[in-house]
Recover the amino acids of this structure.
């Protein structure tokens, strides 16, 4: 029901004529003369369960975080991520509901936070804070602060065993977004006690901020579309604060000095196009970029996600909608941003860009570039069935030799072995091989590089597929010390039965050149000659008087280059956007398959979408092949015997057949 149907009239009879209504804030809450309150935005209670298998791969439990107030929280621990043995990012989540409704234990937020924990591979603490009007604001702020202090204390075994407090995030939606912002401000100031708590990032979805001064016309007059009217939002803050705080209080209308005080490293703000509160979220993101010192050096430090055609809180009630999936993926990528989750990559044009199978060209700001190590190292890539006992023994001998020579080690590939029961979607597991694999890795003193993204790395692509984690990357302690930010991303699988793994050393990325390149492939674009002539005419007509032909040529050439560069950047944009939507749908199906057994029809739909992406990529692959000019890529029967011989010779020159140091031959 839309909020515009709520009444501003106080002290009236309800529909039954039995009680006086003193405050009517439908669809949130009503308060009656006798003090009784009626809440409307609520869903059924869900029990916590530590049985991850019965809860879509996520174990949950309820804990009390503050004895005197009784404030509690629900913990969400994704079993697959926990089974890796790596420390997990921690998300303190605060639910919405206008400070007066909803619960961390209700079905709506239980399902959403469970999905967030599974997708992000994070340990989530969902706070059950006290609600107004029984506990007016600022009680909710105090409860969230108490929960953050409790998380930092590592009082619970789940936190002490699995949490990485160096990656602590505060997240919330609507009123919860407001609460986590104010909690971050309090954390930056030490909570009044000087006890600073580190927060890496903020995730604020459709945040509730307001003020006396209006930012846009949508905050003045209801447009007849938005879920909440400005009049309803105006009356909400005085109600939940018991009239103690005005609408310009810094907790609802942030001050620049508070924004400046934030010490987190990055922030994501999500707004919905039809939401009355959307301009407040945009304003906050803009002020973050302007005021925060940590946002000066990184243009990606503040991320604004806008959902077209959507209203407040749409993602909670329609999680399968495409816009909901995109929002969830944006949050997951933000949480794992140190792993630089990009869109899948295809053949890329620049020599420093990483090539991976199946996908699309990425924004240079989020390219997973491999930093070149500044010291000697060895990487060993093996494949397939040979990686059993014989290969593990051979690998162990090589690692021992290389380590003795003071070289760091990175080992990756398709090991065709699993490490635990969570690495396979059925119970057909060869446990002796699992023990053998883990024992070999332990004896080599290697640690697996933390992987984010899709849960499984291989499938047999059947309608009832077998799915396993076969592809891994391991590193020596010396490698990890040299590259502490090295990460691994499992991308959406397209074409192959293995997912592409994108490794990043975490070093400084090489920026794309801003030089202009005239693409010969443009000649094949229908109507390019007419497009070129028109751009030339516009450039010539825009010039003033020129002193000579050289000045004329330089001026026209500069403007024409800029015009063609912009035109070329947008060439094929609609195809890329359509492919991105399909890839998001595929990623969502894969996520659903990670959480539950999906139907054969759903797998068939996934394979159909995969075929569409492959067809879309063929033309783009040919385009990048022509642009790159690489002459050593083998193309089978499409090339002459002479070219094959030439290409093979070039390829052999690029191969490393042995490693040698000052002490002599190593391998």
């Amino acid at each position: 029901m839309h909020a515009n149907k709520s009444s501003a009239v106080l002290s009236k009879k309800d529909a039954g004529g039995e009680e006086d209504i003193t405050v009517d804030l439908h669809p949130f809450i009503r308060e009656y003369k006798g003090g009784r309150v009626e809440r409307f935005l609520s869903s059924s209670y869900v029990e916590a369960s530590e049985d991850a298998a019965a809860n879509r791969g996520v174990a949950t439990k309820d804990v009390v975080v503050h004895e005197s107030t009784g404030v509690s929280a629900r913990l969400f621990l994704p079993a697959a991520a926990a089974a890796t043995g790596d420390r997990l990012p921690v998300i303190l989540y605060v639910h919405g509901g206008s400070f007066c409704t909803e619960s961390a234990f209700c079905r709506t937020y239980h399902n959403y936070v469970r999905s967030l924990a599974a997708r992000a591979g994070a340990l989530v603490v969902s706070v059950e804070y006290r609600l107004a009007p029984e506990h007016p604001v600022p009680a909710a702020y105090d409860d969230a602060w108490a929960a953050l202090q409790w998380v930092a204390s590592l009082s619970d075994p789940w936190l002490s065993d699995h949490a990485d407090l160096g990656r602590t995030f505060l997240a919330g939606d609507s009123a919860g977004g407001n609460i986590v912002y104010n909690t971050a401000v309090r954390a930056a100031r030490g909570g009044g006690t000087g006890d600073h708590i580190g927060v890496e990032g903020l995730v604020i979805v459709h945040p509730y901020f307001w003020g006396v001064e209006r930012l846009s016309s949508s905050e003045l007059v209801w447009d007849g579309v938005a879920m909440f009217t400005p009049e309803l939002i105006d009356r909400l803050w005085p109600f939940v604060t018991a009239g103690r705080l005005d609408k310009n209080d810094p907790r609802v209308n942030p001050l620049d000095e508070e924004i400046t005080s934030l010490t987190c490293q990055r922030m994501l703000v999500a707004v919905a196009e039809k939401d009355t509160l959307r301009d407040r979220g945009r304003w906050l993101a803009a002020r973050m970029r302007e005021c925060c010192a940590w946002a000066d050096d990184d243009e990606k430090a503040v991320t604004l996600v806008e959902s077209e055609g959507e209203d407040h809180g749409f993602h909670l009630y329609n999680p399968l909608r495409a816009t909901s999936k995109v929002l969830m993926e944006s949050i997951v990528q933000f949480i794992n941003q140190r792993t630089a989750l990009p869109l899948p990559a295809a053949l890329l044009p620049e020599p420093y860009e990483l090539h991976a199978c199946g996908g699309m060209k990425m924004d240079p700001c989020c390219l997973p570039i491999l930093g070149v190590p500044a010291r000697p190292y060895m990487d060993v890539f093996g494949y397939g069935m040979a990686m059993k006992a014989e290969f593990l023994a051979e690998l162990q001998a090589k690692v021992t030799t290389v380590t003795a020579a003071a070289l760091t080690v990175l080992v990756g590939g398709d090991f065709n072995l699993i490490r635990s029961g969570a690495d396979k979607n059925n119970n057909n597991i060869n446990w002796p091989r699992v023990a053998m694999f883990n024992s070999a890795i332990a004896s080599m003193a290697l640690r697996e590089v933390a992987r984010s993204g899709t849960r499984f790395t291989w499938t047999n692509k059947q309608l009832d597929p077998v799915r396993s984690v076969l592809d891994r990357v391991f590193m020596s302690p010396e490698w990890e010390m040299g590259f502490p930010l090295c990460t691994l991303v499992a991308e959406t699988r397209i074409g192959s039965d293995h997912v592409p793994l994108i490794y990043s050393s975490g070093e400084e990325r090489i920026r794309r050149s801003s030089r202009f390149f005239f693409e010969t492939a443009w000649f094949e674009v229908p109507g390019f000659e007419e497009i070129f002539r028109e751009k030339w005419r516009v450039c010539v007509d825009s010039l003033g008087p020129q002193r000579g032909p050289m000045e004329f040529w330089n001026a026209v050439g500069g403007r024409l280059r800029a015009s063609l560069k912009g035109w070329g950047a947008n060439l094929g944009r609609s195809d890329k956007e359509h492919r991105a939507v399909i890839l998001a749908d595929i990623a969502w199906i894969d996520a659903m398959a990670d959480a539950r057994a999906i139907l054969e029809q759903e797998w068939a739909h996934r394979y159909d979408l995969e075929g569409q992406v492959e067809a879309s990529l063929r033309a783009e692959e040919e385009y990048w092949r022509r642009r790159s000019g690489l002459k050593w890529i083998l193309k089978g029967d499409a090339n002459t015997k002479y070219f094959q011989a030439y290409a093979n010779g070039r390829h052999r020159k690029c191969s490393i057949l042995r490693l040698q140091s000052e002490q002599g031959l190593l391998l």
